[in-house]
Specification:
The longest helix has 17 residues, at 17-33. The chain is an alpha+beta fold. The protein has an eight-stranded mixed β-sheet with strand order 1-5-6-11-10-9-7-8. A five-stranded mixed β-sheet has the order 13-12-14-15-16. It is built from 15 helices and 16 strands. The two termini are 41 Å apart. The structure holds adenosine-5'-triphosphate and magnesium ion.
Length: 421
């Protein structure tokens, strides 16, 4: 019986891998340009890390985590997001004792038990950043500016930056009873999930995608109306910072995000080009989290972007050129030709020129067919006759033009034609 991959868990095949590499290279470039350093944290952690940070009454912790028992009975979980592990590492390695701010970025797979569909997977990948130590609106703006710079550089279509102020914990505590009493009047119009959320996590009702719930909460009192002056001032400074950098945004008072650790600034970049899965990346400020997990009080802000969704949106014109453009096919045939060709292949590769051959092909015709199939820009032909003359024949597969190349100077002749990679 054929063994298949798991539902919602995809293979990344060689045709698509260069697109991912391209996106990752851009992300790495902009993150380092903005002063972030790479961190790699484990794919699994003890379950309590996620339960305590993301929040017990969130969708992720309630029903999306891949949790299992280790042999000694410890409960472990495949990470559903990157912030919790990064914060744990920050605390465990006492990074707070190092000069602040500490700014990290990461790439990697995340795991959530969701209903798989286009752009929604059970193993998906994120690029994310976390910035520790700055309780300054400009740190929020810096994170958003990095996200915006990356997505703009990738020329992703139809992007909107939505932003909201979640205030301080005390602001949300003031707001909750006001919201709950409104929601209780709307109870019969809400979905079963939201009816439950009124008890466990009332703010999440505002974020529900079910149309009836959206309609029922359209006239709900707004969190902004319960906001303290301090939180208001902070958020105004963030918006001013965005204005000063010409980063456009939409205020969205419904944006509450599905994780408990956020406060003050919360944001999401959406697109109209992805259908139902319209979130490209999201993040916000999470000043309480480091302390919640046992570290010193540390203000922090971060975001994460879904690589699958970015890859789906990446315009064809941005995709890296096919490898064949920079590849030489070495068509070596005949006794001597094959043997000399084998050394030439190695010389080319040693000098950094991408070179391929199909060892099964014995005739020039068979080689040329392979070179065409692999879409190689150039073919270097070496038969017994060429070896006798000390030459190889270089064929441009597009123009069909051919020229002699001295066997003693193959690398030097080809290098200017092909930029090494
Ligand atoms: P959504 O509203 O789509 O469920 P989310 O709020 O759960 O997203 P976050 O936890 O903020 O998402 O993760 C940040 C980004 O990671 C999302 O904007 C999205 O691009 C991506 N992402 C989240 N969950 C998935 C998934 N199951 N499959 C693919 N990408 C995902
Ligand atoms: Mg989700």
């Amino acid at each position: 019986m054929m063994i298949k991959g798991i539902k919602g868990v995809k293979d990344l095949l060689p045709e698509e891998a260069p697109r991912w590499r391209f996106i990752e290279d851009k992300a790495r470039h902009w993150a380092t340009t903005f002063g972030f350093q790479e961190i790699r944290v484990p794919i699994f952690e003890v379950t309590t890390l996620f339960a305590r940070s993301i929040g017990a009454s969130t969708d992720i912790v309630e029903k999306e985590m891949y949790t299992f028992q280790d042999r000694d009975g410890t409960s472990l979980t495949l990470r559903p997001e990157g912030t919790a592990g990064t914060v744990r590492a920050y605390i465990e390695h006492n990074r707070a004792a190092d000069p602040l701010p500490q700014k990290y970025f990461y790439f990697g797979p995340m795991f959530r038990h969701e209903r798989p569909q286009a752009g929604r997977l059970r193993q998906f990948h994120q690029f994310g950043v976390e910035s520790f130590g700055m309780a300054d609106p400009r740190a929020d703006v810096e994170a958003i500016a990095l996200l915006w710079q990356l997505l703009s550089d990738l020329t992703l279509p139809a992007l909107t930056l939505e932003i909201n102020n979640l205030g301080y914990t005390s602001d949300r505590e003031t707001y909750k009873p006001v919201l709950v009493s409104y929601l209780q009047q709307q109870l019969s119009k809400l979905c079963a999930n939201c009816q439950r959320r009124i008890e466990t996590n009332p703010l999440r009702v505002l974020d529900c995608k079910v149309p009836d719930c959206r309609a029922a909460t359209e006239a709900a009192p707004k969190l902004a109306e319960s906001m303290s002056d301090k939180a208001r001032t902070y958020f105004d400074a963030v918006l001013k910072g965005l204005d000063s950098l010409d980063i456009p945004y939409h205020l969205n008072h419904r944006l509450v995000r599905g994780l408990d650790y956020y406060c003050l600034t919360t944001f999401e970049v959406t697109t109209t080009s992805l259908g139902a899965q319209n979130a490209v990346g999201a993040g916000g400020r999470y000043d309480g989290l480091v302390e919640t997990l046992g570290g010193p009080p540390t203000p922090a802000v971060g975001f994460a972007v879904g690589i699958e969704r970015v890859s789906m949106m990446l315009p064809e014109s941005q995709a890296p050129p096919p490898a064949g453009d920079r590849t030489v096919y070495v068509a070596a045939f005949g006794d001597q030709g094959a043997s000399v060709g084998f050394s030439v292949l190695q010389d080319l590769r040693r000098s950094g020129i991408r070179a391929v051959v199909d060892f099964r092909s014995g005739t020039l015709k068979a080689h040329l067919r392979q070179a065409d199939r692999l879409k190689c820009r150039y073919t270097l032909m070496i038969g017994d006759d060429e070896v006798t003359k000390g030459l190889a024949l270089l064929r441009n597969m597009e123009t069909k033009g051919q020229s002699d190349v001295p066997l003693s100077a193959v690398v030097a002749s080809i290098k200017p034609l092909i930029s090494p990679s």
